[in-house]
Specification:
Tetracycline Repressor, domain 2; 2 domains; about 0% strand; disordered N terminus
Length: about 220
């Protein structure tokens, strides 16, 4: 440790102070190091304790390098999560609504059971405490499953499996909503039997039957 270093500042401060001793990194290499450090911080401390200073120290760079790329920690965390593939979902195309929905649910459940799952669970919990961060989560992470599900439903409409009114119904996202709630309440892995129960016992009965008319002639539920 440098004789001028403050012992009370801890190892992160010492690491940040001597980051210039290593080879200088630029561009994609430096950005990759920062995003990797962000994911490590999220795994160890969670979003609430994550700071730009700690990420910079772990990435062995200066804090200014982070602020040149991201305005705040929320933007940084969202890019780190995206870089890890948390939002990557393949669009199933099995030719039938039930098997398409099950294929999507299995993909989402697999992500929840991966090392990224713990990070995702922590981020979802933070939504209740930080409205701005909640907006980013809904925009960049939470919408991935529902948007893919919407495309699955559009194909089911074209095949004549469901009524077009389901595309604008709150019932359209029930499958992914229930999966998320199962994950938040009980953690991962979400068992295959639970996925099948959500799809067969709850979701399909909801969207396969016509929506009941609302009193006063409003739009269907």
């Amino acid at each position: 440790m440098s004789p001028n270093a403050d012992p009370a500042a801890g190892p992160c401060a010492a690491t940040a102070a001597d980051h210039r001793k290593g080879p200088r990194r630029r561009g994609a290499e430096l950005e990759h190091a920062i995003l990797a450090a962000t994911l490590e911080e999220l795994s160890e401390t969670g979003y609430a304790a994550l700071t730009m200073e700690r990420v910079a120290a772990r990435a062995r760079t200066g804090k200014a390098a982070l602020y040149r790329r991201w305005a705040n920690r929320a933007e940084l965390v969202m890019d780190a999560v995206r870089s890890a593939g948390m939002s990557d979902v393949r669009l199933p195309d099995t030719g039938a609504l039930r098997t398409d929905v099950l294929a999507l649910m299995r993909q989402l459940a697999a992500k929840m059971a991966s090392p990224l799952g713990g990070i995702l669970r922590g981020l979802l919990a933070e939504m209740t405490r930080d409205p701005d961060f909640a907006a980013l989560i809904r925009e960049r992470v939470h919408t991935v499953g529902p948007l893919t599900l919407h495309t699955i439903l559009e194909r089911a409409v074209e095949r004549g499996e469901i009524d077009r009114s389901m595309l604008t119904s709150r019932r359209a996202s029930v499958a992914t909503d229930l999966l998320r709630n199962e994950f938040l309440l009980f953690g991962a892995p979400v068992e295959e039997s639970v996925l099948i129960e959500i799809v067969d016992d709850v979701y399909l009965p909801l969207i396969l039957r016509p929506a009941p008319p609302r009193a006063g002639g409003g739009a269907p539920a």
